[in-house]
Amino acid sequence: MVDAWLAAAGLDAGLTVAVEGESRPLGEHLADVVLPDPASVKDRPLAGWLSGLTPLRPREYSITSLPEDGHVHLLVRQVQTTTGAGTGSGWLTRHAPLGGKVSVRIRRNAGFHLPSTERPLILIGNGTGLASLLGHLRARARQGQGRNWLIFGERNADRDFYYRDELEHWREQGLLERLDAVFSRDPSPGRYVQDVLRTTADTLREWLDAGAAVYVCGSLKGMAPAVDAALRDLVGEQALDEMMAEGRYCRDVY
């Protein structure tokens, strides 16, 4: 993206520039910022626009691995735009060199930790929201805690059923008591995770009566409010609010 931008702006990637007291090649600096319209800066002095560019915002991904694994495992969807792969996901999945370095930090999400007690878990997510739910399931599997119910939604079963072998293996072993995977763009039945909640209402209430905690991870637009609405319809406004206050209804949505 930077190479194409430099060509359009008529600038040399190797030109040394100084921004906020740091000198480095222009191409390296531009790789860390939101690129402006090349026509808007063409033939303008660098000092007039370079220091005012907006830094790229960090991308946040849930970690599916556990600390004792000794590595960080991510589930990343490569975003596609009209100009090609997305800036963050495209670089990470297509251009970052094997053995290269990636600038990262780990952000703690205290509101989405596993419960301190051995209670049943209902894990609900769509898309790459499966990542943090999978981390919880891996931790529960290592502890031998099998009272887990995963409700997962994506587009197509043949392309988007992430970690299918691992999930089905856990189900066969009894470490995943129930697995409901639904796919909205498959011709039959073409459902969403909130549809599963409504069609399994009696089972849902049984799990909640047994003290189950509900964890929701995935898209803030569409999935999360639809799941919240379904839960409120099925268990009641007051009951769900009490669960949230008790830390039994946790959400990690984006």
Describe the structure.
There is one protein chain. With 254 residues, this protein is of the alpha/beta class. The protein has 11 helices and 9 strands. The chain has a 5-stranded parallel sheet, sandwiched between helices. It has a two-stranded antiparallel ribbon with strand order 1-2. A hairpin with a 2-residue loop joins strand 3 and strand 4. Helix 8 runs parallel beside helix 10. It is elongated, with a radius of gyration of 23 Å. The protein starts with a helix and ends with a strand.
Task: Describe the structure using short key phrases.
single chain; 254 residues; alpha/beta; five-stranded parallel sheet; two-stranded antiparallel sheet; 9 strands; 36% helix; elongated
**Overall mean pLDDT score?**
94
Question: Which segments are poorly predicted (pLDDT under 50) over 5 or more consecutive residues?
Answer: none
Structural class category: alpha/beta
Cα end-to-end separation: 26 Å
Residue share in helix: 25-40%
- Number of beta strands: 9
Strand order of the largest sheet: 7-6-5-8-9
Largest sheet geometry: 5 strands, parallel
What Rg do the Cα atoms give? 23 Å
Strand content: 15-25%
Q: What global shape is seen? A: elongated
The helix tally amounts to 11
Order of helices and strands: HEEHHEEHEHEHHEHHEHHE
How would you summarize the topology of this molecule?
Blueprint: H1 2-9, E1 16-19, E2 22-25, H2 26-30, H3 38-41, E3 80-81, E4 84-85, H4 87-95, E5 121-126, H5 130-142, E6 148-154, H6 157-160, H7 164-173, E7 178-183, H8 193-199, H9 201-209, E8 213-218, H10 223-235, H11 237-245, E9 249-253
Helix pairs in contact: 8-10, 10-11
